[in-house]
Structure formats: structure tokens, C-alpha cells
Amino acid sequence: MNVRTCISEIQDVANYVHAKFYILRTKQINSKLSAETWSIGQNIEHLTLFNESIAYQLSTAGSKNYKIPWYARFRWLSNYHGKTILQLVHRNSVIKSKSPLQWLPTLSDVDMNIFDEYLISLNSIVEKLNSLAKTPEKTIKVKWPADDTTYIYLENLTQIIIEHQWRHIKKCDELLYFVKHHDFNKIQ
């Protein structure tokens, strides 16, 4: 996916989240199906943490002093990592994966400000992508924030960003359906 398409998709995600979830009350965004699952608010907080770390890595990838380690110069390795991560986070993936610790949401209730923070984190990614837009995506390798030894191509990262957003928004939609059609006071 090229940078321009990714930016357009990010705008679609932001519009969707704004239209669908801004109208909810705090109790609704903190409702859960079980103690082991995340609430709508926790899913959005997770995406916010993910987006912030991606934006940071994008900003370092665009700096003059950015150097990749020798092993990251192997094209096949960067492609492999990017495709593997994409399979894990794809919106239609049935693979269950554990989120890295730095992206885990809080266990306590989330307040309504999380949606503003989420949109700010998306805008930060757009800013960083705009600064990289003139460089061919196939030449930029970005460090994967969850692992200091993994570098992936920008074209793979843009797909990962979008698919990861939609995967969690899909989970939020499922929770929203449950919250609207059931008594969420009975939910944990």
C-alpha cells in the first residue's frame, strides 16, 4: 500500500470511529463481554499506544542520522517480517496473538478522552507519512516498535497500520452490537 492510500484509509478510519463511537457513554465504552476480553475503550487505548509507537518509529526513519543494522539490509528478511506481522494483525485473521506489553491497555476504566487521544495518534502518523511521501516506499525500512531487531519496509508497514486499526474496530463493532442489544449493566 502506498503512503497516499494509507493516509486516505486513516481518514476513513478516523471518520468511522468518530461517527460510531463518539456518541457512546463512558459506561458503554467500558463494558466487556468477560473479564478476559477488552472493552471498546481498551481496544481504542491499545490502538492509541500502537499508533504513538509507530509514529515515533516513522519520525526516526525520516531523520538524517537514521541507520539500519547490517542484518536489516537483507530484502527478503524485511519482506518476511512485514508479511508475517501483516498476517497476525489482518482484520480477517483468526490467529490469536498476544499484544506486546507496551501496547497493553490499562485494566481500569477508560474515559471518553481516549477517542480524542486516538485521533491525535492517527494524525501523528499522517504527519510522519507526509514527511516520508517523497521517498519511494520500497527503499524505506522502519524498525518494528515491538522488537528492536525487526525492520520492515514502509509499504508493508502502511498495510499493517490500516489492517490493525480495522481489526480492533471490528472488535469494537461486535462489542457495540452487544452493548446496544443487551443490558450492559449485567456485563462485567
Description of the molecule:
It is a single chain. This protein has helices spanning 3-21, 26-29, 40-61, 75-89, 113-132, 154-181, and strands at residues 141-143, 151-153. The model has no long low-confidence stretch (mean pLDDT 89). 57% of the residues lie in helices and 3% in strands. The protein has six helices and two strands, in the order αααααββα. It starts with a helix and ends in a 7-residue tail after the last helix. With 188 residues, the protein is mainly alpha-helical. It has a single domain (3-181), classed as Four Helix Bundle (Hemerythrin (Met), subunit A) (Up-down Bundle). Helix 1 runs antiparallel to helix 5, helix 1 packs parallel to helix 6 and helix 3 runs antiparallel to helix 6 (154-181). Strand 1 and strand 2 form a beta hairpin. 34% of the residues are buried. The chain has a two-stranded antiparallel sheet with strand order 1-2. The protein is elongated.
